[in-house]
Amino acid sequence: MRFIRKFFAGRIFITAVLLLLQIAWTTRFFLRLSASSVAINTILGVVAVLLVVYLIGSDTQPAYRIVWIVFIMALPILGGLLYLFIGINWTPHRLRRLIGRGHDALRPELAASGVPDHACGSPRLAARSRYIRTLTDYPLYANTDVKYYPVGEEMFADMLETVRGAKRFIFLEYFIIAPGKMWDELYAVLREKAARGVEVRLIVDDMGSLFLLPDDFVRTLERDGIRCLRFNPFVPLLSVVMNNRDHRKILVVDGHTAFNGGINLSDEYINHTHPFGHWKDTGVRLRGDAVRSFTAMFLELWQSEKNEAVSLAPYGPDAPAPPSPGFVQPFGDSPLDHEPVSAGVYIDILAAAADYVYIMTPYLIIDDVMREALTAAAKRGVDVRILTPGIPDKKLVYRLTRSHYRPLLAAGVRIFEYTPGFVHAKSFVSDDVCAVVGTINLDYRSLFLHFECGTYFEYAPAVAGVRDDTLAAMAAGREVHMADHRPGFFGGLLDALLRIVAPLF
Question: 341-504, superfamily in CATH?
Answer without folding.
Answer: Endonuclease Chain A (3.30.870.10)
